[in-house]
Specification:
The complex is a heterodimer. Chain A is built from eleven helices and seven strands. By secondary structure, chain A is α/β, with parallel strands linked by helices. In chain A, a hairpin with a 3-residue loop joins strand 1 and strand 2. Chain B is of the alpha+beta class. Classes of the chains: A alpha/beta, B alpha+beta.
Chain lengths: ~375, ~140
C-alpha cells in the first residue's frame, strides 16, 4: 500500500518535506540500531582489530627486514639469508608433559638448552663472519622478530575466525586485550634496533647493578655464560655475578648461584638477587623495592635451582626489584632505570651491614640481559 | 637513528560513508531547527537543533578518530645517549649512541678537559619526555 505525502506528513506530524525526511531517517536509524546494533558493534570491533593487525603486520615486516639487514651487514654471508630467516621466524618449541610433573624442571631445562644451542648454531650458519658478541645480538634480534611474527599470526587468526564465524564473542576476546598486546608488540618493535645495535635494555637493570659492583675486580667465567667476581663490601666478601656482556645474553644465573654456594660448601650468610620487575600502573619507573625470595623471571628453571640450593644450605635469599613497565623491559634502558642502579647499590650495602657480620660471605646476583653492559 | 614511519594510505570507505551521512544529516537538522525557530516553533526548533548538534559532534569525533589512527601508525625510534666519563678528572660528556658502544667500554675519545687519552662509557640510556613521565604516574 502506497502512502501519499499528506498521509506521511500526518504520520510523522510535520508539514514540511525536509522535516519528515529527517524524522524518517532518524526513526530508521533507531530501528536499524535496535535490530542490527550488535552486528554494527561487531563490525566496529573487526575494524579496530583490522587497524591493529595492519600495524602488527608492519612491525612483523620491519622485524624481518631488520634481521635480514643485520645478518647481511655483520655476518657477510655467501648466500642470501632470507630463506633461513623465514625458517627461523616459524620456529616453535613444545613444552614438556605436565600431566606427571615429577622432573619437569630438568626436562624443561634440557629443552631450553637444546633451543639455545640450536638458535646459536643457526645464527652462526647465517652470519659466518660475526664474533661471539655479535652472534648473541643477532640471536636476540631474530628472537624479537620471531615474537613479533607470533603476535601477528595469533591476532590474524582471531580476526579471520571472527570474520568467518561473525561471532561477537570470538572477536570481542581479542578486541578487549588488544591494547595490552599492542603495547607489548610496540615495545618489541622498538627493541629491534636496540638489540641489533647492542644497546642496553630495561631487562638488564639487575645486570647493570652487578656490573657496577664488579667493575675493576678480577672476573672469572662460570657456568653458563656468566661471570663472577670476588668483591670486598663493608668488610664482607661478596661473590658478584651476572651474565657475561656486552652481547645479548641472560646466562644461567640459577646454575651459577648453585655452583658458588656449593663451592663455598654453603658458607654463605646471605644471597641478594636483583632483577627488573613489572611495575603497577601509577608506580614510577625505576622505583626500588625490597623483598624475600628468588627474583628471577623467565621459565622458572633458574629460580627452582636457587630455591633448592638455598633450602639445602639454609641460605636466606633476599630480592631487590627495580620497577619498570612491561614496555620498558625490552626497550632501550630508560635514564630512570639507569639512575636507580646507584640506589640499589646503597640498599645492598645496608642489607649486608644489617644481615651479616664482618668476614661473612655473601652472593649478589644481577639478573637480566647483559646486552650493551660490560663488566 | 631514523624513525621508521609508514602511514596508512587507506581510510575505511565504510567509515567515510558513515561520517558523510552523519554530517549531511546534522547540517540538514541544524537548518531545520533554525527554520523552525524563525517560524516561532520552539519545540521543533529545540528538537532539530539538539539532533543536529549531537550528530555534528559525533561525525567530527569519528573523523578525528580516523586521523588519530592514521598518525599512530609507525615505529618511533627513540634517541639514545651515551655518557663518556674521564677516569682522571671526572669530566662527563654526553653524545649520541654509536654502534659498538657498551657500558664500561674504553673509547678512544680523548678527554676535552684534561686531554687524557681515553674515556670510558659510564651510561647508555634513553630519556623520556616529562609529559610521558607525568602520564605514567597519573594522579599521584
Amino acid at each position: 500500500m502506497m502512502l501519499t505525502t499528506q498521509q506521511v506528513s500526518q504520520l510523522v506530524g510535520q508539514d514540511n518535506f525536509l522535516s519528515w525526511v529527517l524524522q524518517i531517517v532518524f526513526l530508521g536509524i533507531f530501528v536499524v540500531f535496535m535490530f542490527y546494533g550488535q552486528r554494527i558493534q561487531m563490525y566496529i570491533m573487526i575494524r579496530e582489530v583490522e587497524g591493529s593487525l595492519f600495524k602488527l603486520k608492519m612491525m612483523r615486516d620491519e622485524g624481518r627486514k631488520v634481521a635480514i639487514n643485520a645478518i647481511n651487514e655483520i655476518g657477510k654471508p655467501q648466500v642470501d639469508p632470507t630463506a633461513q630467516v623465514d625458517r627461523f621466524l616459524e620456529y616453535f618449541a613444545i613444552t614438556p608433559v605436565d600431566l606427571d610433573p615429577a622432573g619437569i624442571i630438568w626436562r624443561l631445562e634440557h629443552l631450553l638448552d637444546v633451543a639455545d644451542t640450536r638458535f646459536k648454531e643457526d645464527v652462526r650458519l647465517m652470519a659466518p663472519q660475526a664474533d661471539e658478541t655479535q652472534i648473541n645480538n643477532l640471536e636476540l634480534t631474530l628472537e624479537v622478530a620471531l615474537i613479533l611474527n607470533d603476535i601477528y599470526k595469533v591476532i590474524r587468526h582471531f580476526y579471520l575466525l571472527g570474520k568467518k564465524t561473525l561471532s561477537l564473542y570470538v572477536i570481542m576476546q581479542v578486541q578487549m586485550i588488544l591494547p595490552l598486546i599492542m603495547k607489548e608488540a610496540e615495545a618489541h618493535a622498538s627493541a629491534l634496533k636496540a638489540v641489533q645495535l647492542g644497546q642496553p635494555i630495561g631487562d638488564g637493570a639487575g645486570a647493570l647493578v652487578a656490573a657496577k659492583l664488579m667493575h675493576d675486580y678480577e672476573k672469572t667465567k662460570i657456568e653458563k655464560d656468566c661471570v663472577v667476581a670476588k668483591v670486598p663490601i663493608e668488610g664482607r666478601t661478596a661473590y658478584v655475578l651476572k651474565a657475561e656482556g656486552p652481547g645479548g645474553n641472560v646466562g644461567k644465573p640459577g646454575e651459577a648461584i648453585k655452583q658458588v654456594i656449593e663451592q663455598s660448601e654453603g658458607k654463605i650468610s646471605l644471597a641478594i638477587v636483583i632483577d627488573a620487575a613489572g611495575k603497577l600502573e601509577g608506580e614510577k619507573t625505576g622505583e626500588v623495592a625490597e623483598g624475600l625470595g628468588v627474583a628471577i623471571g623467565g621459565p622458572q628453571v633458574d629460580k627452582y635451582k636457587v630455591e633448592e640450593t638455598a633450602l639445602k644450605y639454609k641460605v636466606p635469599v633476599n630480592a631487590i626489584a627495580i620497577k619498570e613497565d612491561v614496555g620498558d623491559v625490552v626497550s632501550p634502558m630508560r635514564k630512570e632505570i639507569f639512575d636507580a642502579a646507584d640506589g640499589v647499590i646503597e640498599r645492598i650495602k645496608r642489607l649486608i651491614r644489617e644481615r651479616t657480620k664482618e668476614g661473612d660471605f655473601v652472593i649478589i646476583a644481577g639478573i637480566g640481559n647483559s646486552i650493551g653492559i660490560g663488566q | 637513528m631514523e624513525a621508521t614511519v609508514s602511514m596508512a594510505k587507506r581510510i575505511s570507505p565504510f567509515l567515510l560513508v558513515i561520517v558523510m551521512i552523519t554530517l549531511v544529516l546534522s547540517l540538514a537538522s541544524i537548518y531545520e531547527g533554525i527554520d523552525a525557530y524563525s517560524k516561532n516553533d520552539s519545540v521543533n526548533g529545540n528538537l532539530f537543533l539538539t539532533m543536529g548538534v549531537t550528530t555534528l559532534i559525533i561525525s567530527t569525533y569519528l573523523w578525528f578518530q580516523t586521523r588519530k589512527r592514521m598518525l599512530k601508525l609507525g615505529i618511533a625510534m627513540p634517541s639514545i645517549n651515551t655518557t663518556l666519563e674521564c677516569a682522571k678528572c671526572g669530566f662527563k660528556n654526553v653524545r649520541e649512541f654509536q654502534r659498538g658502544d657498551y657500558v664500561f667500554k674504553h673509547t678512544e675519545d680523548p678527554c676535552p678537559k684534561c686531554n687524557e687519552k681515553t674515556m670510558s662509557i659510564g651510561a647508555i640510556f634513553r630519556e623520556v619526555k616529562e609529559k610521558e613521565r607525568a602520564r605514567e604516574v597519573g594522579y599521584a
